[in-house]
Amino acid sequence: MKTLGGKPAHIDVLLVEDSPGDVRLTQEVFREANRSIHLHVVVDGIEAMAFLRHEGVHAHAPRPDMILLDLNLPKMDGREVLAVIKEDDGLKSIPTVILTTSESEVDIVKSYQLHANSYLNKPVQLDAFENLVKSINEFWLVNVKLPKHSRGE
Amino acid sequence: MAIGDPGPEVISHVDALKNAETHLAQMEVRYRGLLEAAPDAMVVVNQAGEIVLLNLQTEKQFGYQRDELLGQKVKAIIPEGFAERLLADGSRSAEEALAQHIGTGIELYGRRKDGSDFPIEIMLSPLKSAEGVLVTAAIRDISVRKTAEANLLQKVVELNRSNEELGQFAYMASHDLQEPLRMVSSYTELLSRRYKGKLDAEADEFIAFAVDGANRMQRLIRDLLVYSRVGTAEMDVLDISSEAALEQALINLRVAIQESGALVTHGPLPKVMADEIQLIQLFQNLIGNAIKYQSHGVPRAHISAIKDGVKRWVFSVRDNGLGIDSQYFERIFGMFQRLHKREDFAGTGVGLAICKKIVERHGGDIWVESQLGTGSTFHFALVGKEY
């Protein structure tokens, strides 16, 4: 989290999600939960890695304070993205939260084995989704203490 | 009295012999009649394993002429199992050997003259005779039964597989339906929150219907998922405390209990052999119904169990609710069956179908006793552990 004069300026969250409906909904709900969040959206695993490594159009991308990662993505799925992030010394300390509809025990176990920071199911009800986003915000973006980073260098 | 003239005693002895012979002949005629009338092939075998007598059915079934078999070893027509058995029986008393059924549990085969085999079942009984103990064997051709059994088994295998596929399909379908539905319900909900009162009254009405429809569909899909999970999930049947399962169910129901002010009580509850998750679900659905289907006053539910037989426990969930007309006692356990208008009681009609599925998977049964206006008692039986 970057601070300016002791006050949090804004928080960068990278959302890796290919469904436009989900993207929009997540934007809406995050906006209600915390106005200082900048939600950056990428639609597949390849683009997620380009964002995190500041490649191509993402040359000036910020280092996110948190990554919200869907598991089922085109080109390079969430499990692969997670594996690459957690093997990269520059990226592994970014909290990476799996946010998916999959309730499969296999996916849950696999994600934690790959060092996901937490695994969350997208609730079906809007109210429940709002509550979940509030708790993500409170825990990962407000209360949690993370090491200071100098932009992935 | 002239020499050579038989005395009166001798004459009477000869008569007796003659009588005895006649008697034997008559017996044989009768016996022969019985033998030939028997629906099974019957052979009489001596201790050496040789065929001494056989009936018409034997000729038919094995494809031999009578003369071809008389004096032959029984091994010629029953290659395995029978002759060995005769030897074993030789050392046994006639009573012990009496009417022994062989071929149950083991596969015995008869061999026809042309070398083809067919499955048989044999019933043995000893027959005392002048030549020692003979053995009568009734041989039944069980080809038809075996084929029927094999067909039945095949059908069961196919049925199980198709059931499993259906269960998987229901699960996948309801899971995948949830995804687009989440979009519909979330966005109609957002619409209603943000635009209620900002459009016209008609728009509000339309949006309300859309929200309601999406919500109902969500409940339906959630219940279908539970139902298909209950039907297909691996069960973990252990010796568990039904009281602990009930307590967990009450925790899951605490919002409904608090909101309705319901009083839920229970008597002593036993340990049972059950899958804990499913037992919790069962209590939860039954008690949830007890609390829900009420008209006025404080909802009350009482859970009890009594031992019925050595290993069977009958649980009862009694309520003071609306009660159910006896004509619906069967129907309420069916899928999507509802007795009330949606405005009166929301519901998918899946809850009791889930209960039935759970109880049936545990090898028990479920039924209801009720009178309109005085409440209902749902009973379910589970197999317990013998204590």
Structural key phrases:
heterodimer; A: 153 residues; Rossmann fold; five-stranded parallel beta sheet; two-stranded antiparallel ribbon; 5 helices; 7 strands; 39% helix; 19% strand; disordered N terminus; B: 387 residues; alpha+beta; Heat Shock Protein 90; elongated
Q: How would you describe the overall organization of this protein?
A:
The complex is a heterodimer of chains A (153) and B (387). Chain A is an alpha/beta fold. Chain A has 5 helices and 7 strands; from the N terminus they run βββαβαβαβαβα. Chain A has one domain: 3-Layer(aba) Sandwich (Rossmann fold). In chain A, the strands form 2 sheets. Chain A has a 5-stranded parallel beta sheet with strand order 4-3-5-6-7, with helices on both faces. A two-stranded antiparallel ribbon of chain A has the order 1-2. In chain A, helix 4 links the parallel strand 6 and strand 7. In chain A, helix 1 packs across helix 5. Chain B has 387 residues and is an alpha+beta fold. Chain B folds into 3 domains: 104 residues, 2-Layer Sandwich (Beta-Lactamase); 69 residues; 153 residues, Heat Shock Protein 90, CATH 3.30.565.10. In chain B, the strands form 3 sheets. In chain B, strands 1, 2, 3, 4, 5 and 6 form a 6-stranded antiparallel beta sheet that branches. In chain B, strands 8-10-11-13-12 form a 5-stranded mixed beta sheet. A two-stranded antiparallel ribbon of chain B has the order 7-9. Chain B starts with 7 loop residues before the first helix and ends with a strand.
